[in-house]
Amino acid sequence: MFIGLDLGTSGLRALLVDDDQQTIAVSEASYDTTHAHSGWSEQDPEDWVSASQKVLRDLRHRMPSQMGQLRGLGISGHMHGATLLDRDACVLRPCIMWNDTRSAVQAAKLDSFESVRDLSGNIVFPGFTAPKLAWVAENEPEIFAKVAKVLLPKDYLTFWLTGAFTSDMSDSAGTAWLDVGKRDWSKTLLAAGDMRQDQMPRLFEGTDLVGVIRSDLASELGLPSDVAVAAGAGDNAAAACGIGALSEGDGFVSLGTSGVLLAARDNFAPQPASAVHTFCHAVPGKWYQMGVILAATDSLNWLSRNLQQSPEQLTTLLGDTLGAPGTVHFLPYLSGERTPHNDSAIRGALIGLDISSNHADLTRAVIEGVSFALRDSLEALKSTGASLDSVFAIGGGSQSRYWLELVATVLETPLHLPEKGEFGAALGAARLAICGVTGQSPEVVMTKPQISTTIMPRTELTGRYQEAYAVYRNLYPSLKGLSS
């Protein structure tokens, strides 16, 4: 038996699978995010520990026989978070999250240093880890002076489980401290932010085993004493492992809280100016690139809160069949934007409202705006040489047939829907553990799921949506002018 833990933004998901990767049980626990100021987003790492204890105990209670056969565990987690520990491994402050934008000034300063983009393969985004530490140095110097280790969120859970300070390549690539081509910490990048290599965890490939669960913790949780823990992966790399996107041409589109268009790459091919993320994959010798939009289903959730109707109720208003583009335009920059603008200050807008505009018009505008933002990411990926002839569709938004037809048509790319089952980051984390424990290659373990349906672009509408996308692209400069 193997477990994949997925440390998400709003909760933890635990997936128990057997050695044939059949789902045995699932357990979930939620936790809160605090927003003390505009642009701030923080979590208490002890909430992650409490959630982990809850789900592991729940699985042990419900599946005692299977949990007694547990051999390995892998963890996936939201990236970029700064979890700061002192010399006694005590948490110094709440974790500064991936969607926290307070360090925009520090990010711009780091990004201006010579060789930073060449070595990291990326723009230094405000959400990355390095500018967060620069912000702490400037605004909380007494805390910065005590920092002995910086751990990414999922690596804090690995430390709790094993007592070891470790990280994997895919997660560490989002810090702006890693030489992404060489897959190692960069002295140059660390020095740019006044950091030291001894403050960094030891690096592993995601399939490597980093230790076993501490004996006292295994006893406390009722687990076998020899459960091995894999290095794990950042959430999108883990999702790629779960869906079998390992090699050139493989990819997925994720309609989750944020939106992601990911392409696996066989080689390191950065183009930072495109605002595409170029990261190490969770498996050896592979990389991946992705365009990221900060508010995908979050945009629909925002509309849902304000119209006081559930997202499902709102999307039902549109039916199941895609029609022509609407006349109301939405720019989904509710929390700023990454690809292609790298603009933490920009904010969203509804444009073209009419006195007759109704809930359906607003819903259509929101999901069209998110879909056009994903088209921005596709164009940015193309500029790096990435190729995606078709992609798997995952995430909560993929439950809407209308939205899937819209994305396929806007991207002019077929979307594959996997057969019912677990194919997300939790499975990817479990697969990393399977590779580590059994020694099997990722290509053998991380196969693609069976396809239940393929959503084809509506070719009779692609011209209309191309025109609407051109309007969308022209709106950003005008909105930027109003925001500056």
Automatic annotation (TrEMBL):
Q: What class of enzyme is it?
A: transferase
- Which Pfam family is one of those matched by this entry? FGGY_N
The residues annotated as site (Important for activity) are: D6
Its recorded reaction(s) are: D-xylulose + ATP = D-xylulose 5-phosphate + ADP + H(+)
Q: What is its EC number?
A: 2.7.1.17
Domain Carbohydrate kinase FGGY N-terminal stretches = 1-242
Q: Sorted alphabetically, which InterPro entries does this protein's record hold?
A: ATPase_NBD (IPR043129), Carb_kinase_FGGY (IPR000577), Carb_kinase_FGGY_CS (IPR018483), FGGY_C (IPR018485), FGGY_Carb_Kinase (IPR050406), FGGY_N (IPR018484), Xylulokinase (IPR006000)
Q: Does the keyword Transferase apply?
A: yes
**Residue positions binding substrate:** M79, H80
Q: What positions does the domain Carbohydrate kinase FGGY C-terminal occupy?
A: 252-434
Tell me which residues this entry annotates as catalytic.
Answer: D235
Q: Which GO terms describe its molecular function?
A: ATP binding; D-xylulokinase activity
Which UniProt keywords are present, listed alphabetically? ATP-binding, Carbohydrate metabolism, Kinase, Nucleotide-binding, Transferase, Xylose metabolism
Instruction: Kindly state a single biological-process term from the GO annotations of this entry.
Output: D-xylose metabolic process
* Database matches in NCBIfam families: XylB (TIGR01312)
Q: Which HAMAP family match?
A: XylB (MF_02220)
Q: What does this protein do?
A: Catalyzes the phosphorylation of D-xylulose to D-xylulose 5-phosphate.
Please report which protein family the annotation says this sequence is part of: Belongs to the FGGY kinase family.
Question: What is the name of this protein?
Answer: Xylulose kinase
What is the organism field in this record?
Answer: Shimia gijangensis
Question: What high-level taxonomic lineage is stated for the organism?
Answer: Bacteria, Pseudomonadati, Pseudomonadota, Alphaproteobacteria, Rhodobacterales
